[in-house]
Amino acid sequence: MQDLARDVIEQRLFRRLSVQLRVSYVVPRRRGEAFSGEGQTGDLSAGGMLLTLAPLPQTVMAELIEGDGEIEVVFALALGEPRIAAECRVVWVRMPGEGGPDVGLGLRFVDLEADVRDRIHAFVVEHAQ
To answer: Which of 2 and 60 is assigned the larger pLDDT?
Structure first.
């Protein structure tokens, strides 16, 4: 319940931008090898992102939903800009058919460095106008 309250507060703290950026991701796994792939943002804020991706294997989805919900993402805000690597926690999941054919993962950035958070915030503010 505490996580839900924090997520609601963060939704109010950070302005969101509807933007499609290419994202590489890795799902660390407790059993088996890490699972990696590519997706894209549906929206972005200094607090996290909506990551849309093709349906994942059932075992990987189960670990995301029932486990720690950890996922690592790498993305760039624009061509030629330094890539951002971030550890994230899955805070909600949209399954295929619940608003589209893809999986949607609501991600919250974990321990993001202040300068990186500032870069994301500046990008969102600049492009939201």
So the answer is: 60
How far is the C-alpha of 86 from the C-alpha of 97, rounded, in Å?
28
Count Cβ neighbours within 10 Å for each residue of 24-62 and write b for 16 or more, e otherwise.
ebebeeeeeeebeeebbbbbbbbbbbbbbeeebeeebbe
Q: Could you tell me which residues are beta bridge partners of residue 93?
A: 105
In terms of DSSP H, where are the helices of the chain? 2-13, 58-66, 114-127
Q: How many CB atoms lie within 10 A of CB 77?
A: 19
DSSP-derived secondary structure for 63-100: HHHHS--EEEEEE-SSTTSPPEEEEEEEEEEE-TTSSS
Residues 6 or more apart whose Cβ sits within 8 Å of residue 113: none
pLDDT band at 3 (very low <50, low <70, confident <90, very high): low
Using CA atoms, how far apart are residues 37 and 1, in angstroms rounded to an integer? 31
Q: pTM of the full predicted structure? A: 0.86
